Amino acid sequence: MAKKVVATLKKEGGVTYAKVIRAVKSDKTGAYTFKEEMVPATLVQDTLKK
């Protein structure tokens, strides 16, 4: 399974955001691409379960 990276970013309006970076393997070429998402820190675990 690909490595997952989570970086916690500064608070904006009382909500802490995290940048989630996932490596996704392409079925067509077999190459890895990276998918980046900005999510509230409270939803990081839910995002990684997808």
Automatic annotation (TrEMBL):
The identity of this protein, by name, is DUF4295 domain-containing protein
The UniProt entry, under Pfam families, shows: DUF4295
InterPro entries per the record?
A: DUF4295 (IPR025379)
Q: What is the lineage of its organism?
A: Bacteria, Pseudomonadati, Bacteroidota, Cytophagia, Cytophagales
